[in-house]
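quick one before i forget lol
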Amino acid sequence: MAIVMALVSLLMTLLGGVVAMRVRDRRHLVLGLAGGLILGVAAFDLVPESLRLTHLRVLRVDAPMVGFAAGFLVLHVVEQLSAIHQAHEGEYAPHRHPHGHGHPGRGGHIGILAACALVGHSMVDGLSIGLGYQSGGEVGLFVALAVIAHDFADGFNTFTAASLNRADRRPAVVLLALDAIAPVVGAALTLLVTVPKSVLGIYLGFFAGILLYLAAGEILPEAHSRHPRVLTLCATGAGLLAVMGIMTLGE
């Protein structure tokens, strides 16, 4: 049953990605909505869940929050290293990269890394489904429904993040496919191994830090760069409210 529910999650993730593909003509609204969804997932889902899973502390600080800071810092370091690389390129003879196949902007590197983290999160979702069914059929069903409800946002965010500042959409399509398959893999792994809750808690905190940097440092600034801000702000608020509603239903 866990595998069946994970397959439903796969379909919901793909649906979210397809919607993100089809609304490219209103990219600023898509990015604003994605920013709100990502902030909501980090604040209303990942951080509370990470603190619930483990009570480990590092120097009197909750271990998941140390992971949170580390995730934020990792993306910041990646962005700065990318900026240094581009600055060094400019010191040499001018050159052009073929359209869609050269080096993407800094946001492109950050988006790909964040999309990879979303794939990891989806695998944790599959683990959650499997572990829920290990606890009992009713628990597993409610966990699966909660996962399925927010996997639309996962697919939407994965495609949006991976295509940020990129003309070539193939990496985004590949990562969307991996994100869709990941819950099935995670659910299958629970038939073989048991993941310590403390490890999951720290990972979720780390992942939340990555998402916060992606939303605040890349997606939302891009959303507001060249378009009317009121509608984009409304889209961001709608994303936050949507995640809050999903979490309420999940509870």
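fyi The longest helix spans residues 106-135.
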